[in-house]
Amino acid sequence: MLSCIAISSAHATLYTGSGESGFAGAVGASKMNWTDDGTTVTVNFTKGTSGNFSDSFVLYFDTGVSGRNAIGTLVNDRQDTNRSAISFMEASTGKILTLPAGFQASYAISINTGFGGLWSIPDTGSIGNNGLGFVAGVGNPSSASEASFNFSFNLSDIGLTPNSGAEIKFVGTYLNPFGGDGSLGFASNEGYGSGFTGANIGQNDFTFSGSPLSYIASVPEPSAFLFGGLVCSVLGANYIRKWMQQKSA
Length: 249
Prior knowledge:
This protein is of the alpha+beta class. It contains 2 helices and 14 strands, in the order E-E-E-E-E-H-E-E-E-E-E-E-E-E-E-H. The strands form 3 sheets. Strands 4, 7, 8, 9, 11, 12 and 14 form a 7-stranded antiparallel beta sheet that branches. Strands 1-2-3-10 form a 4-stranded antiparallel beta sheet, with no helix packed on it. Strands 5-6-13 form a 3-stranded mixed beta sheet, with no helix packed on it. The two termini are about 20 Å apart.
């Protein structure tokens, strides 16, 4: 049987944190290098040198489907540290995380030194304990002082078609989901996206300004198709020639 394959060419995009250091700069001074092979996105996270990765890092994803533009009192999954971090503050604070205009969060990644995972965010209704849908583990640092670590997720896990050049819009926060008064959550001024200032968010509302960050996933390069076509043509010609030789023997 003759078969041919298409080849996706990985590319890389570098992102930098907010530049703030309310929690000592582990995320504010960090860098993320995103790459993908058409199927799986791999992120190399390099923390800022002045602080440890001691709290929870959250990335909210807009994948082009219906989601939430705000993480408010209706989102209150406090089942564990990661779910709590995605939920921003405990609902009793009444505080709201407002995402960029037009942004629809349908998935989120939450990472700390204990675990890193991907969760889906229901687009309507109240979300209580275990209401965020666990999708997959993504990876996490082995210690708070680790200089860099990788985390990864499949495009299909966030509802995107592999090798399609799909866009992922995202913003990020860094917080202690059980910090602050009453252990109800305390957010830093470190993250990814626009709107962070010199003061920590604390137990207050926060609104991202400007546009979210964006990553465009890989598509097979034309050269890959051309090369694949050439290889298939050569293999096909050889296959037919050998078949004819056997037929006439």
